[in-house]
Amino acid sequence: MSFVIWVAVLGAVLLTLALTSSYLRWMPVTTSAVCLLLGIGIGPSGLDLLKLSVENAAVWMEHLTEVAVLFSLFVCGLKLRLPLRDKRWRIAFGLAGPVMVLTIAGVSLLLHWGLQWAWGPSLLIGAILAPTDPVLAALVQVNDARDVDSVRFGLSGEAGLNDGIAFPFVILGLLLIHGEGSPGEWQDWVLRSVLWAVPAGLLTGYWMGRGIGRVTLSLRIRNDDSTLSPNDYLALSLIALAYVGADAIGGYGFLAVFAAGLGLRQEEVKSTGASQPPAEHLVQPVVGHQNIEPQHAVHGDTERLESSQVAAGIMMGDMLSFGSLVERAMEVFLVTLLGVVLVAHWDWRALLVGAVLFCVVRPACVALMPWGALLDTRQRLLIGWFGIRGIGSLFYLFYALNHGLSAPLTTLCTDITLSVVALSILLHGISTQPILARYEQRQKRKT
Fold it and tell me: How far is residue 41's CA from residue 321's CA, in Å, rounded to a whole number?
């Protein structure tokens, strides 16, 4: 009966969102904020339809949040079409590197000196809460591969790359908690978790994406089967192989999956032409794969296009559509679950932590960076505010819970993380659309 109730509730939530989407579009609220409130309403503090023990569900919740982040990172990589030598990549590298380190340090100092916590838990929670979420921040990231706005591009690149800084500090926090602070442990952490795992993950994923993309396009052009090929299978296989391949050599799987999306996009650029629009905009997406004749599967004027452009356009369009669908479904499910358990794990200290993180630490860290002409003052303020916390932080939390935390530390990390993530969903969810609308109007007037 419990499973039936879970399925019924999930179906009801999805139906509610589908029926109210036209109204929500004009309201200053995101889907995530609505799902959070729905979760609170159907949880023990509301209608009491669903119950969930975070401690008992930590193992499968770690893997579920991991899958959600993987799909989001892959889609994020597919949308970033600018060449790596473009100066706007410096914004992403600055946010995912120095800004991330400073944010972790700022939160850790707040928890250690302000709340009198030990350095281990302070650093661990700082690393959990520092990353900008690739799933829930989708609204402030690039809309598609044509979008090269500095704010959205920088936030997208940060969301894809921040695992390279956040995950090593999560591991370091666990080392400090477990008392493994010998010189040998520090040296091993630097060599394996930083100097090796970061480039290994990025290079493995990038060249795997480029290689598989090149082989796939070549075979489809040669066999003239671009319209009926299962591109959802290709997306799943590339995500899985990039993740496992990087993990097998000690690299970070999240970085590998993001880089795989980047590499695949670069193959599309090579086949379509850098001066051309993205291939998926040159052809209309495939309506479906079953019972459709090849000559009718693609609609629109494709006679003037080269076979490489048609193949790349259909492939990229299908993969973006499939990845975005999975990403949205996982977002709805996980944020609803967060609402179910939120009241039981609410910690009032999260108000202080969230206020300092959202309004002081993150904006100050962004402002301290020497951006030069890359970002004007308004853009720096926007990036400083849009450090949205979400599913990525939940993954790091459950990863830590499954690596030997004591009962008091489990309660502490769970309560603070869930509460701060919920605050971010509500505050950023209410403010995102109005702020973005004003920003986009100003950008249009400029151009």
Answer: 31
> In which band, very low, low, confident or very high, does the pLDDT at 180 lie, cut at 50, 70 and 90?
low
Q: Is the pTM value of this prediction over 0.85?
A: yes
Domain that holds residue 145: 2-446
Q: What are phi and psi of 370, to 5 degrees?
A: -80, 80
Tell me the CATH number at 422: 1.20.1530.20
Q: Which residue has the tokens 């503090």?
A: 45
Nearby residues of 443 by Cβ (< 8 Å), 6 or more positions away: 149
Q: Are 49 and 339 in contact (CB under 8 A)?
A: no
Rounded to whole angstroms, the Cα distance separating 349 from 146 reads: 42
Of 145-154, 175-184, 244-253, the poorest mean pLDDT is in 175-184
CA separation, residue 232 to residues 12, 81, 299, 315, 365 (Å): 26, 20, 20, 9, 39
Q: Work out the angle at residue 341's Cα, subtended by the Cα atoms of residues 335 and 346, and round it to the nearest 5 degrees.
A: 105
Per-residue confidence band for 284, with pLDDT thresholds at 50, 70 and 90: low
Counting the structural domains of the chain, the total is 1
